[in-house]
From TrEMBL:
Signal peptide residues on this chain, from the entry's feature table: 1-16
Alphabetical list of Pfam families matching this protein: Cys_knot (PF00007)
SUPFAM superfamilies named among the record's database cross-references: Cystine-knot cytokines
Full protein name: Thyrotropin subunit beta
Annotated PANTHER family: GLYCOPROTEIN HORMONE BETA CHAIN, THYROTROPIN SUBUNIT BETA
Quaternary organization: Heterodimer of a common alpha chain and a unique beta chain which confers biological specificity to thyrotropin, lutropin, follitropin and gonadotropin.
Encoding gene per record: Tshb
Alphabetical UniProt keywords: Disulfide bond, Glycoprotein, Hormone, Secreted, Signal
One cellular-component annotation, GO: extracellular space
Cell compartment(s), UniProt: Secreted
Single biological process term from Gene Ontology: G protein-coupled receptor signaling pathway
Annotated InterPro entries: Cystine-knot_cytokine, Glyco_hormone_CN, Gonadotropin_bsu, Gonadotropin_bsu_CS
CDD domains in alphabetical order: GHB_like (cd00069)
Length: 134
């Protein structure tokens, strides 16, 4: 291996995370319940952006720990609860949702993230809409 290749490889492994553009991003969630009169549009933040990944073409030359497919995921998050308007008394009118406080590039945690496939795009209202800015 040439010295240039080795230095490039080491530089990429050490400083790869600094080139990542993973940060909290504004996002609107639309929430409705069949029993309630309104759809609630909630403005929140999610983690989104680019994370540096390492190509596995050289996997025979590198340690497994050096080969990673990082995603933009939550470093810190909190949950807030919103009240869905127009719900009858027998219905629970609350909806809890995550708010990204800070983000990081790392392994996807399936406890709170969908790591495998893109979700079906159904983020819209079918009822009259109320906006919640928390």
């Amino acid at each position: 291996m040439s010295p240039f290749f080795v230095m490039s490889l080491l530089f990429g492994l050490i400083f790869g995370q600094t080139a990542s553009l993973c940060a909290p991003s504004e996002y609107t969630i639309h929430v409705e319940k069949r029993e309630c009169a309104y759809c609630l549009a909630i403005n929140t933040t999610i983690c989104a952006g680019f994370c540096m990944t390492r190509d596995s073409n050289g996997k025979k030359l590198l340690l497994k720990s050096a080969l990673s497919q990082n995603v933009c995921t939550y470093k810190e998050m909190l949950y807030r609860t919103a009240l869905i308007p127009g719900c009858p008394h027998h219905t629970i009118p609350y909806y809890s949702y995550p708010v990204a406080v800070s983000c990081k590039c790392g392994k996807c945690n399936t406890d709170y993230s969908d790591c495998v496939r893109e979700r079906v795009r159904t983020n819209y209202c079918t009822k009259p809409q109320k906006i919640c800015n928390l």
